[in-house]
Write a structure and sequence with these properties.
Blueprint: E1 3-6, H1 15-28, E2 33-37, H2 43-48, E3 57-60, H3 68-78, E4 81-85, H4 92-99, E5 103-108, H5 112-132, E6 138-145, H6 152-163, E7 173-174, H7 177-185, H8 200-219, H9 225-233
Parallel strand pairs: 1-4, 1-5, 2-3, 2-4, 5-6, 6-7
InterPro entries: DNA_Partitioning_ATPase, P-loop_NTPase, VirC1
Protein name: ParA family protein
């Protein structure tokens, strides 16, 4: 039932990969998942058409800005988890989705451009909190990191996040060939062949740890006020 959105105002931050990793890990645990593919590139919708998509994952690509909150509410009432891959702009769909999310995950690469894109989402969340009159829980996940090297740019981003007191997942998403292969061949990580995919075991371990952190934060969120409001209004 938790609603988890992935957002960054800059494209290419690893948002879609993070959303898909979480969705497939949750599905592997036997939970039902609805993914809203609000990214104009529709990478997750393309993935859904490939072989190997778990039967307990539903992908919705037809999204109506004026009724996105109702669509999310309906999905949250029917499936265990709702995951939203938002587009890299600030618009009505993004604002409405963020306002009804139990957790907003902001993927950021080790670059100043990604950090600025993430900062725009953080600013938007603060504005929305005043409108909906409750906190919108959020955190940052560092993406496409190098397992062996920490760059100067990444260190600068980490320092910026720390100074501003922003919650950052302990587990970054490391750049792995296995993650790219999901979008080429479909399915989840467990469906990939360790003989043909480099460091598949480490990719699985990384995805499990990342997902565990996200789910822990999503589960401790208090009962959603937006859900009660819509329930009374329906």
């Amino acid at each position: 039932m938790p609603v988890i959105s992935f957002a960054n105002a800059k494209g290419g931050a690893g948002k879609t990969t993070a959303a898909l990793l979480l969705a497939t890990e949750v599905a592997e645990r036997g939970k039902s998942v609805t993914i809203f593919d609000a990214d104009p590139q529709k990478w997750i919708s393309t993935w859904a058409d490939l072989p190997g998509r778990p039967g307990n994952i539903q992908v919705i690509s037809q999204i109506i800005p004026a009724s996105i909150t109702e669509q999310i509410m309906d999905a949250a009432a029917q499936t265990d988890y709702v995951i939203i891959d938002l587009e890299g702009t600030e618009n009505l769909i993004v604002a409405n989705a963020l306002s009804v999310s139990d957790l907003v995950v902001i993927p950021i690469q080790g670059s100043s451009m990604d950090a600025r894109g993430g900062a725009k989402i953080l600013t938007l969340i603060k504005k929305l909190e005043k409108i909906v009159r409750h906190d919108i829980k959020h955190c940052v996940v560092l993406t496409r990191t190098n397992a062996a090297v920490t760059t100067r740019a990444l260190k600068a981003v980490q320092e910026f996040l720390a100074v501003n007191g922003i919650d950052v997942l302990l587990t970054p998403i490391v750049e792995r060939a296995a993650y790219r292969d999901l979008f080429e061949f479909g399915g989840g990580l467990r469906a990939q062949n360790p003989k043909t995919v480099t460091n598949l075991g480490k990719a699985k371990e990384n995805a499990v740890m990342f997902s565990a952190e996200v789910l822990e934060r999503a589960q401790v969120t208090p009962r959603r006020r937006w859900y009660d409001v819509f329930k009374r209004a329906s």
